[in-house]
Amino acid sequence: MSVIKVGVMGIGNMGRSHVQLLGKGKINGAILTAVCDPFQDNLKELLKDTAGDVQIFKDEDAFLNESDIDAVLISTPHYDHPRLAVKAFAKGMHVLVEKPAGVYTKSVAEMNKAAKESGKVFGIMYNQRCNPIYQKLRELIQSGELGEIKRTNWIITDWYRSQSYYDSSEWRATWKGEGGGVLLNQAPHQLDLWQWTTGLMPKKVHAFCSYGKYHDIEVEDEITAYVEYENGATGIFITSTGEAPGTNRFEISGDRGKMVVENDKLIFHRLTQSEREFNATYKGGFGKPECWTIDIPIKGERTDHQGIMQNWIDSIAKGTPLLAPGEEGIKGLEISNAIYLSSWLKEPVELPIDAELFYKKLQEKINQSSFQKKNVEKVIFDVSETH
Amino acid sequence: MSVIKVGVMGIGNMGRSHVQLLGKGKINGAILTAVCDPFQDNLKELLKDTAGDVQIFKDEDAFLNESDIDAVLISTPHYDHPRLAVKAFAKGMHVLVEKPAGVYTKSVAEMNKAAKESGKVFGIMYNQRCNPIYQKLRELIQSGELGEIKRTNWIITDWYRSQSYYDSSEWRATWKGEGGGVLLNQAPHQLDLWQWTTGLMPKKVHAFCSYGKYHDIEVEDEITAYVEYENGATGIFITSTGEAPGTNRFEISGDRGKMVVENDKLIFHRLTQSEREFNATYKGGFGKPECWTIDIPIKGERTDHQGIMQNWIDSIAKGTPLLAPGEEGIKGLEISNAIYLSSWLKEPVELPIDAELFYKKLQEKINQSSFQKKNVEKVIFDVSETH
Predict the structure, then answer these.
(1) B248 and chain A in contact, CB less than 8 A
(2) What is the ipTM of this complex?
(3) Domains located in chain B, CATH noted
(4) How far is A112 from chain B (nearest CA, A)?
(5) I need a labelling partner for A348 at 20 to 30 A (CA). Which of A203, A378, B157, B207 fits?
(6) Residue A147 pLDDT
């Protein structure tokens, strides 16, 4: 197949980074041919080093109808992901959406339906799935090395953001513009990996969110969620943008031991026999099963956004299986929506959630908002230090 | 002052260990002169290496009225701690109670009142307060090094117990005999240190307990508690006897950084400025306050039970301040009672809890119990591997 012509919609912080990767020829088999953004500031400057001609559009319909592209990368604000993806699929384009898949599962389910009907290649920018440490963790869990899971625990509080970050644009960290805070902007990666590596979706969520606790924003900047799984396992997910230095520690306890990912290491505390078996047969007082502490070797590079984009292009060109199929974006979002709903209702919620109820409650948040952003200074950030 | 004559009530696993320490002259200024236990098996054998004569009693009143003692160490099953302590104070004795202080705060408040009125030295066996790592943690937090606390998180799941442990006696892990499971038997140390090191008691507790999840018992063997503090900080406490290998990791996040106690190390991630100050003044996108990672040197030995007993004797003999005043036993128990109450009511509870309501609910658990212990084999365990 010939080179894939790619367009990018939404040239904010992340979009600029994607344009640079494509424009500098970092994605084999792909070429940047069009961009679209209602704000045209600095676009020419951004594109000056790009090989070949790039069409610049202001209007999304003109972009979708008139540009010469096979595939579109959508990096607009989150609310627009499903709507634009549905339009792109209707035009026969392949789609890669930035995370999160959207703001509410109702629209993401529609996007997934459109993707399926189109038969096009649909990916999502869960670039952390390219991280070999999480790939290895998933492989070990899925192969049964850890045995049945008992408990999961992710403390992911190293998403520190200052007030100036929130002040960098009008839409950010508002119910209307972004649809949420840390759960929608920073933590989607871990919400995805939490279920992707373990293969477990919670069946019940009881969550506690703090809104504007550490920043002058109306959405959440700290959450603690307690979950229960179908098999009886329990879990905790803690995230925050208000702590420095944060923690990124994912612990999974199972019948065959415990795995901990922290500081770029995967440590497997491996029992030499099943704990359930030991429990049933041991006759002493304070004994425990024998345990080996293993520093699991991690091979490969963290290819991040480039890895996901290359994989998406390879999937279009050669049928390579997707690392992050777009349809799976609904899973992390479902957990995220459940966390909000539990916090708003002040009660546990079962999954799958009532998508209509969530949508209705979100509209109430938007309509009842009287929050005014102060000190907004529209700024373009270098995103090389985040993901 | 002359040597303190000590009696020990309750010669189970822990009582035997205390008798051995006292009997072998390990506590300076103290001598073992009497023991009391309704079960007399092996008591003579236990006492054969003890210097001097030790009176052996079967009946608690005979022991309290007739024995030649100045001070009593109470290591009976938990329910009896307050009742026996009140009797001992009435006899003018100094008292050291094993943890937990009791099973419900209503009786512990009565014990504290009796202690205060007696003017005698009242200690509690929170031997982990002798651990220099927690002493140092407390010192750093109380001196303001960490700044205002934002979040606490203790994963204390390395209390593994097998079914054979629970089968070792009739009273263990029953509502009637012990009054609970991991919260009353294993985790009281951490429930104490959680509030002692931080100086913060939760104001609200929302907890999730699993009863007989990993063992054939009627009480809880896994809990997750979410708490909120007066200053807005949040916290998580997770404990279990069903995981191998468990985790013992205590993380405290504050305005000036983060402290983590794990694997016998205290790591202080110390910011060079206040996070709140940084947040208010920084103007960039993804910046964070500068952070130094410091391995805090820990001096001193873990003196454990011996340390608490020596400190109690020194307090009686020389007025040395107590490391673990008995009156403080109610704090950890209050959190423990709140965790049960929240789990039973399936709703958050405020602290201080309704002590009468807790007592009533506990009586319901006892009265409604139809649990029959199977395979009980009364065994004496060597407790040198636990605390």
Answers:
(1) no
(2) 0.95
(3) 4-127+303-325 (3.40.50.720), 129-301+331-378 (3.30.360.10)
(4) 33
(5) B157
(6) 98
Tens digits of residue pLDDT in A149-190: 999 999 999 999 999 999 998 889 999 999 999 999 999 999
How many angstroms away from the CA of B349 is the closest CA of chain A?
A: 14
Q: Could A257 and B244 be called an inter-chain contact, meaning their C-beta atoms sit closer than 8 Å?
A: yes
Contact A386 B232 (CB under 8 A): no
| Residue A119 CB-density burial (10 A; 0-12 exposed, 13-18 middle, 19+ buried) | exposed
Q: What distances in angstroms separate CA B235 from CA B92, B204, B344, one per listed residue?
A: 41, 10, 20
C-alpha span between A82 and B211 (Å, rounded): 43
Q: Which segments in chain B show pLDDT lower than 70?
A: 1, 382-387
Taking only residues 206 to 235 of chain A, the set having a beta carbon closer than 8 angstroms to any beta carbon of chain B reads 206, 208, 210, 213-215, 222, 224, 226, 228, 232, 234
Q: What is the pLDDT of residues B132-161, one digit of tens each?
A: 999 999 999 999 999 999 999 999 999 999
Rounded average pLDDT over A258-267: 98
> pTM of the entire structure?
0.96
286-325 of A, contacting B, C-beta below 8 A: 286-289, 291
A163 touches chain B (CB under 8 A): yes
Q: Which tokens belong to A52?
A: 């070949």
**DSSP 3-state assignment of A53?**
coil
CB B133 within 8 A of CB B266: yes
